[in-house]
From TrEMBL:
It comes from Populus tomentosa (Chinese white poplar). One of its GO terms (biological process) is polysaccharide catabolic process. Residues 1-20 form the signal peptide. Keywords: Hydrolase, Signal. This is Glycoside hydrolase family 5 domain-containing protein.
Amino acid sequence: MDRIVFFSVLSIFSFLVTFSDVMIPQKHVTALPLSTNSRWIVDENGQRVKLACVNWVSHLEVMVAEGLSEQPMDAIAKRIVSMGFNCVRLTWPVFLVTNDTLGSLTVRQSLRSLGLLESISGIQANNPSIIDLPLLNVYQAVVSSLGDNNVMVILDNHISKPGWCCSNSDGNGFFGDQYFDPDLWITGLTRMASMFNGVPNVVGMSLRNELRGPKQNVNDWYRYMQKGAEAVHSANPDVIVILSGLNYDKDLSFLRNRPVNLTFSRKIVFEVHWYGFTDGQAWKNGNPNQVCGRVMDNMMRISGFLLDQGWPLFMSEFGVDQRGTNVNDNRYLGCFLGVAAELDFDWALWTLVGSYYLRQGVVGMNEYYGVLNSNWSETRNSTFLQQISAIQSPFRGPGVSEVHLHKVIFHPSTGLCVLRKSMLEPLRLGPCTKSEAWNYTPQKILSVKGTYFCLQTDELAKPAKLGIICTDSNSKWETISDSKMHLSSKAPNGTPVCLDIDSNNTIVTSTCKCLSKDNTCDPESQWFKLVNSTTRSSTMTKPSSQISSILNFPAKDFLWKFLGSV
């Protein structure tokens, strides 16, 4: 007995010393401009920069960034930062820079021409300095305000003729469509790239949003997208150049065996879009595990493979109904966040916008996919911001490694990770920045890295625990179900169980649920993703006091309460 206790205390001492010395990486000032290093976007020092962006709409008929009638420009920029975003994908229409009549309109004139008198009053109240500026100058002012708040900007050519996007018949879908003159598009790209040459927070340009429609074809994609990329790089060699795919930016499969051919390198990024409605009502009508597995496999086949080929992939649009009542979106989101954490790609949320000046003929339309409310004063859903918080920072990448490669156990539906608050308390969910560093062995053992402790099941509906006897079946964890997000083991009596959480976010084991067929079941409490990381592991404060409390703890009680092995 004494040997067991002594061995256990040494293990705990090792645990505490190991993790008390690990520092959580701090946010750094990005050294611009950006470039690429294999699948990563990096700064001038070669350190990874993860784009955690939000889309800010400026391509509709008014051609003014939405929300400026509701809040001061600087206040919106500061709100973006406070929500954890480091980047804005700022949309623009080609005609803004190629049609002098439109581009020279003032904000007042643009709003008045559309009968938006209330918006004129709102901008006079909240942003009086821009009301009589030309539209193009206001676009520049928005970029400048974001720069003043250290927010990077991706200039996104969303459409040619100002208006809501997108449909197959809107005349903006593909080269040669009614409003999509390839030469005029090149001119617009060149002018925007030149205009923002030397503006340091403009770090990238997206060539075109959601190519689509009956005219789309691969040969014209290569012909014009390569030409557009060359034009942007020639006019502004500092920016990364972002290329979208076909079929509403879902399909980049044609690149698998035919890469782009450009005169420059280390500046190319590919973008893709993925929403719940991308797959219709599949999430609502199907089993979430099976739909997640199927959709994830398809995404990897038609776009995700680029990461393996050494290209950065920018998920430039994803999003959900922020009201939380859309079953299709809710189920999709858990799957998306698991994939986003695992692949650690760059992304841009749709959308910042709480309401529009005018959208599809409706004045002041509420945007339920917007993170801000209709008057742009508060976040619409604080729970959602918690869910995405973990993916706003990099899990790994060049120059950001603080510790050796390990796993974190990420819980997508909460945006939290498995951690241990103290040595004598059960495992709970908490901020991923304080996550334990786990090692997942070929024998399916999940152990706390650098220690003898492994994750074990106890009885059904009881908290999972850490132990040091890691050879039994209750210490082996398999990833099961099509989603690959159920972690399953066996209770001491041989009953199959899955990792789960209770109402207090304590890690427990429960009967595995929703693995297949049932389309009414919600599996998300049991969805966990093992994510590779080199930037996150726990810090344990005051290790000496914790060691002291353990050394003074009665040996028998300690073993019962912590190891469960007497």
